[in-house]
Amino acid sequence: MKKSLRLLTACFIIISLSSCKMGRFVYYNFANITDHKIFPYRTATNDSVKFTFEQSDSPKFPKMLTLGNTEVEFGKYLEDNKTVAFLIIKDDSIHYEKYFRGYDEAAVVASFSMAKSVTSMLIGCAIKDGLIQSVDEPITNYIPEFKNKEELSKVTIKHVLQMTSGIKFNESYVNPFGDAATYYYGTNLRKAIYKRKLAQQPGTAFSYSSGDTQILGLVLERALKGKKITEYLQEKIWKPLGMEYDATWSLDREKDGLEKTFCCINARARDFAKLGRLYLNKGNWNGTQVVPEDWVAASTTPDTTNGGVRYYKYQWWLEQNGNYAAQGILGQFIFVCPSKNLIIVRLGESEGNGNWEYLFNQLAEGY
């Protein structure tokens, strides 16, 4: 009898935990590129007309890499460092495409924070469509529910785009009681957003914050006035770019869920590469201006005023040589080198011991 009671109690605890943030954190422990399987989602469907990259007639990529005093085969280096997909695309032609660890071209991978760059694309589209008037609007124009509305009325859309909002957010991914866990595993993002407070004056310092991007997501949802963010992604990006596969965007909950705009677009390597191609071509896709050209320029040009930093702009990571990237935890990258008309996509189970930014730049120099 006692054994049965203990078993029932254990089952009750497990069931209870599974329905809350703590239960998800304890059970899943840490983010994984297969997390698209554990969250509810909405689907962005592709168009009947697909765009495909051509295979290069004379593919160029390094057979060997020199690391210190040793040489290692390129593919082995990628696999040993937990890569699941690696693409090199030059002048719209695939020079290298390889999958590892049981993955293939149809395998879905969670984007993690690469979704921040996509959220920025959609903000640019919403401004073009007149749904958002300006990046200088206060976020309280769209989120009046803030409990600290008066102090947060100083925060503009540009501040959260630049991550200079001054809004307090704990970015720790290992603290089950931290903000990142609440946003990733929690089931009420709107409620979590309403509780945000200022830690310092907006426009004074950069602080990387998934919280800022999720605020952008709620601003976008309100601007869309009933249309879901995933629907807008489908309309503005997924169909116009001729994606080869559907994508999903993870939600905080099944009923009336909000897209996790700070992360969690789930797609395939080739389709991630098309996002890079879109920005490489200044927002133009085969003659159609999908994202405003001035938005792409603003997103990839450093601005160090009002707390901004040289290496981050409008949810993209920037380099001094003009290259830029969308980047996610565990080593997800869409790397763009405009001077070489080059795109590199790397997806992985973790970063391994790879110095990926260095490798991307070294590869770019070889073209």
From TrEMBL:
- Name of the featured protein: Beta-lactamase
Residue stretches making up the Beta-lactamase-related domain: 83-351
Q: Which residues form a coiled coil?
A: none
Q: Which organism is it from?
A: Flavobacterium akiainvivens
Superkingdom is Bacteria
Which classification does the entry list for the species? Bacteria, Pseudomonadati, Bacteroidota, Flavobacteriia, Flavobacteriales
Q: Which InterPro entries match?
A: Beta-lactam-related (IPR001466), Beta-lactam/transpept-like (IPR012338), Diverse_Enzym_Activities (IPR050789)
Q: Where are the transmembrane segments?
A: none
Short name of one Pfam family: Beta-lactamase
